[in-house]
Amino acid sequence: MSNACPCCLDGVLAPFYEAKAVPVHSCCLLDDRVSALAFPRGRIELGHCDACGFVSNTAFDEGLLRYDATYEDQQTFSPTFNAFSDRLARDLVERYALRDKTVVEVGCGKGDFLRSLCAEGAGRGIGIDPAVIPGRLAGAGAERVQLIAEHLHVDHVRLRADLICTRNTLEHIHRPEQFARTLRRMCGDESAPFVFVEVPAVGRVLEEAAFWDVYYEHCSYFTPGSMARLLRRCAFEINDLSLDYDDQYLLLHARPASNDRSLPHSAEDATGAFAPFVGSFSERVAAKVGDWRGKLSNLHDLGSKIAVWGSGSKCVAFLAALGESAPVDRIIDINPHRQGKYLPGSGARIIAPADLVNDPPDTVVVMNPIYLGEIRRMLECLSLRPSLEAL
Fold this sequence. Notes:
- By secondary structure, the chain is an alpha/beta fold.
- It has 2 domains: about 80-275, Rossmann fold (3-Layer(aba) Sandwich), CATH 3.40.50; about 280-390, 3-Layer(aba) Sandwich (Rossmann fold).
- The protein has helices at about 35, 80-95, 110-120, 175-185, 200-210, 225-235, 275-300, 315-320, 370-380, and strands at about 15-25, 40-50, 55, 100-105, 125-130, 145-150, 165, 195-200, 220, 235-245, 250-255, 305-310, 330, 350, 365, 385-390.
- The strands form 3 sheets. A 7-stranded mixed sheet has the order 6-5-4-7-8-11-10, with helices on both faces.
- A hairpin with a 5-residue loop joins strand 2 and strand 3.
- The longest helix has 27 residues, at about 275-300.
- The chain is globular.
């Protein structure tokens, strides 16, 4: 374990938050409760770099991770997420004139975003991700998408594209500086291709003490400033930098530069901008965990049947923090590939919304408030009206 910053390579990561015995994966599909309870665990020790603002898990061990076809993080069963993703695809096609052009996506998941780009007019999509599932991708544009079931490596530098994008991937990379330099090599010596990066925004996590958004796979956490400074150090020029999706995602647009001295973007925060939230994070998390334990315990004592909506990483982190005594009797997810499986760590079984009809819950804890509207509508379609509690 090293506390040298893997992002700027100059600073030191000062530890500020620890979580023990957390599942090393949140999205792996497990077929039985025994396997889920025995799933490997690791330790999180978040450190903050005062030189660049980057946050990283200094206790991270990439040897514990396994990204393959059992990794199920597809979000396209949500109308809310699809509306955001489709809007983003339209913007990129128009902004970069991608009609009949080629897009390479590093960390493409199951290929859904590339399919959306092609449906909006992009000519060809090439996706790189060890968790792709050949044959699953379908719909308009899918026939123009090529999926490569590999981690990014040196051979991919030869791929030529008009846009290189990477969405919700860089937070999984323990050495982000090396990854960014590989992206720069993929660009060659030209002023194109353009580069688009999307990552979770750690500023909101720090401000809200959102412990449910800290999990083992996410070893790298970025503010607008730390992300932009990383790309500028790796010879990119930042064209646009913003937050989206209720400030949950950080979006960065860049293009290759001739050197590492391009000017800062106006949206970059200072290196110490989030230091006050870093300093109080652990204490505020402990208070929030206590509040949720108390709230769910009180509901349970009153006879309320409690369910959680959303079986992804937030849910795994939430239940791991609350501990085995959390009185949650079922986990709901609209992703059919997750239904009937079991959560790493807690061993809770994942069910479909329709499974609630015969035994309705009194309270549903919603893992992401941005989905409250669509969840309420789905429940109403089932003639169910439980109380909704959002994180």
